[in-house]
Amino acid sequence: MWGMGLTDEQARAFDEAGAVTIDTPLTARQIAAAAAAMDRLLPFREGNPRPSRTCDYDDPALLDIIQHPFFEAAARRALAADEVHFFQTAILNAYPEPGVPFRFWQHVDIQYRLSDFLARPRRILCSFFLWLSDVNERRAPMMVRPGSHLLLARLREDDPAWDAGGGGPPAVAPVMLADLPPLPFAPPVPLTARAGQVSVLTTATVHGASTNVDTQPRRNLVFTFAAAGVTIGLPPGEERQKREYHALLRARLRPERAHIVPDE
């Protein structure tokens, strides 16, 4: 089962909904070690209930997960690719916010056209949102509008006015929901999960964070893959950071897993 990463049904859900939450082969020990690393790297500080970091850590417990063969296999299936490469990573802890009402905000991160999604291999990113703590409807669940990635991809294919890439390669270019075209998006639904499960997502789907009105923190390790040879645009600062982080990872990953980081 783990060799393919995604079953046929899960791959279909990724295609149609843009997000699917699945089990992983990670052990309880691996999850506990990664959660402890998250708390070391993102301690609670008054006034900052949602600390995060991007591409600047090499804790062995987190790298152990990023380089796990399961995620490479799942990314190959989601991207319809024979070979995939690690792209970026981020970590985020959402601590409880007593007295704050539940609310959420939504956006898209990557913009691509329908032809990018239908290409083989796909010219999109596959994002893994690995939950290192249980996520219920009160503990800062991610809110997702299923199928919204396809509505936006079709519009960008058909209407150049909405093609932020101007005919160029797909790009990470965040847009808030209020600034998106008024398409018939599905209502938002919360992604709930058990610790150790992962949501496989295309962040071209309208999605976003919510407040933690529970009593325990929510821990989330995010990492992304792209098909080998596919160009995904980044803002210059992020591109520079990504390349520096890739150089760090090539020296830190196990020799038999270092191939997931492209030699740039």
Automatic annotation (TrEMBL):
At the top level, the lineage of the source is: Bacteria
What Pfam families does the database record attribute to this sequence?
PhyH
User: Which Gene Ontology terms cover its molecular function?
Assistant: 2-oxoglutarate-dependent dioxygenase activity; iron ion binding
Signal sequence coordinates: none
What the entry lists under InterPro entries is as follows: Phytyl_CoA_dOase-like
* Name assigned to this protein: Phytanoyl-CoA dioxygenase
Organism source for this protein? uncultured Armatimonadetes bacterium
The major lineage groups are: Bacteria, Bacillati, Armatimonadota, environmental samples
